[in-house]
Amino acid sequence: MLSTQDKKRVLREMVLARRFEERCYQAYMERKIGGFLHLYPGQEACAIGVMEAARPGFDYVITGYRDHVHAIKCGSDPKAVMAELYGKETGCSKGRGGSMHIFDVANRFMGGYALVGGPFPLAAGMAKAIQMKGGDEIAICFLGDSANNQGTFHETMNMAALWNLPVLFICENNLYGIGTALHRSTAVTDQYKRVCSYGIESDQCDGQDIDVVFEHAKKAVEHVRSRKGPYFLELMTYRFRGHSMSDSRGYRTREEEEQWKERDPINILRDRLIAEGGYTQAEFEAMEKEIDAYIENEVIRFAEESPEPRVEELTRYVLAD
Amino acid sequence: MAEMMYWEAIRRAHDEEMARDPLVICMGEDIGVAGGTYKATKGLYEKYGPLRVMDTPISENGYTGLGIGASFLGVKPIIELMSVNFAWLAMDQMFNSAAKVRYMSGGQLEAPCVFRSAGGTAHQLGAQHSARMEKVFMGVAGLRVVTPSNPKQAYGLLKSAVRSPDPVFINEHELMYNMKGEVPDEEYFHPLEGSEVTRSGTDVTLFGYNISVHWCLKAAEILAKQYNISAEVVDLYALAPLDREGIKKAVAKTHKAVVVEEDEAPCGVGSEVMAIINEECFWELDAPPVRVHAALVPTPFNHTLEKASIPNHEDVVKAVLKLFGKA
Ligand SMILES: Cc1ncc(C[n+]2csc(CCOP(=O)(O)OP(=O)(O)O)c2C)c(N)n1
Ligand SMILES: [Mg+2]
């Protein structure tokens, strides 16, 4: 179980994640950020809860295009992530990647990838390398619900089970793939059931309550780390915003959205901390203010003031120097 | 120098690299217990075991991606795709992951893997087993493409590919696995870039690669004996990047160029070499350059039709004679 101390820390991390993403939205509207932008509000307890149970910076993490928060939780500097969204040379991928391709190899954040389902085999491959080298690390692959309809999902589950690879698959089931509800694209909507035919252990839990995520993730991480084989954990969650920036959300009702907003992962943890005593609404608000100031004065400022990549270096990093 | 077959040369390169470095592995369909469709991995399973010689499920995109992911952490996978026709299924991972990851990550991550595949047209294998696809691979930024025309290159290119920090696609040939040739006894690394003058000549340059080098050599022989035309043959064993300097030098020497490819013409090796000639040395030309290439058809099953769809040395001779106004 997370201690009160830990809970306060992860609450702060979730608020930072939320405010970071909200600030990205604003910067996008101001046309400071271009391209695709997929935001994470509503799902914070997933990446943060799972990585709380794993070892950030030690375990290898890979994910899709909704990747900012995963990188930050692995140890990436929010300034370098924001600079990447601005396409700056100081960005964690030197401005060559963008929002969907955050990389921070020093912190073992092995990248955000834009092809739905692409990271499945890459994660299993990293697990294969870990297995060969004999380390204690695990590979963790975070993807959405709709990625599971790709061939790579099935190909990878089979190989991961066949070769007993130390890989943990986290399915962040937010009920939609862009504008298509899961039940309209997928015959079996309980995703954790789909890996049973490969003999992979799996579970499903609430993805909004970080205490619940943490407990389930702990079991999952232990399973993989003790080399009992791959594991698949499905987290039931919801993205509060549209899929990306141009999404009027006509495919779902405002009532449904309001219902899920009552299960805001930040509010759930905040209210619990306050109810348990030793934490106040005033403290929470002060923290929010402090985070906003940090994002404005340091994160945004760094991104805005950083230099662009040099055009002379356009073709650098295509092949090895 | 010992004579060995193309497949033996590939097998030897695997064996040496796997013996040297425990992080070198190979993976593919039927490569382990069965020894490989073309025997390129024969005996390696017995020697290195199932963890390093991996018989994969028939999941091309899956195991290719798995190899790429392993290469992120320093493993050196040699991934065999049984036929280039099946490599279509793996192109997502090859192109979207391996070829782009260095760039997307701003140089933080690399995918030093080797993809080997049997290309070319063999004998009546039908449309879905006969495609040549070098044109698809050679236009992808971040991917090296090489194609061995003999056992020495097959050995040396694989050795260099394993040591390369970049992903390398090696385009082999169905009909060449049993071809014999000299391979150095000592360790040999063939460069992954450049080209080779295989036969020296003064009147016309024949550019070939992989099997078409042999058509060019045979044509050069006939041209010399029967028509008193001295043809130079240039082996473009590196298709990406192509050897601009080598192409320029060769054209500057003979002032006439013929590009010979087993692939179909559109967007292919021939069109690319001709574009390079245009850009680099147009004024060196005495005559418009010519392409010899396959017909744009799904390869027919019927023996006569199949033969008609693929060029051979006679087509090269004809093209040269036409270029010289002799036909
Ligand atoms: C191979 C591929 N096909 C289609 C797309 C377009 N696309 C981007 S995100 C997405 C939906 C994915 O949904 P899910 O896996 O549930 O992830 P979520 O966005 O909900 O986190 C689609 C279809 C893509 N990026 N890649
Ligand atoms: Mg989804």
Description:
The complex is a heterodimer of chains A (321) and B (327). By secondary structure, chain A is an alpha/beta fold. Chain A has a single domain, classed as 3-Layer(aba) Sandwich (Rossmann fold). Helix content of chain A is 45%, strand content 12%. In chain A, α8 links the parallel β7 and β8. The model of chain A has no long low-confidence stretch (mean pLDDT 97). Chain B has two domains: 2-183, Rossmann fold, CATH 3.40.50.970; 196-323, Rossmann fold, CATH 3.40.50.920. Chain B is built from 13 helices and 14 strands. Chain B has helices at residues 6-20, 44-48, 60-72, 84-87, 91-98, 101-104, 134-137, 151-163, 211-227, 244-254, 269-281, 303-309, 313-323; strands at residues 2-5, 24-28, 53-55, 76-81, 114-119, 144-146, 168-173, 180-183, 196-199, 204-208, 231-235, 238-240, 257-264, 290-294. Chain B is globular, with a radius of gyration of 20 Å. The termini of chain B are far apart. The structure holds thiamine diphosphate and magnesium ion. Thiamine diphosphate binds at residues 66, 114-116, 143-147, 174, 176-178, 243 of chain A.
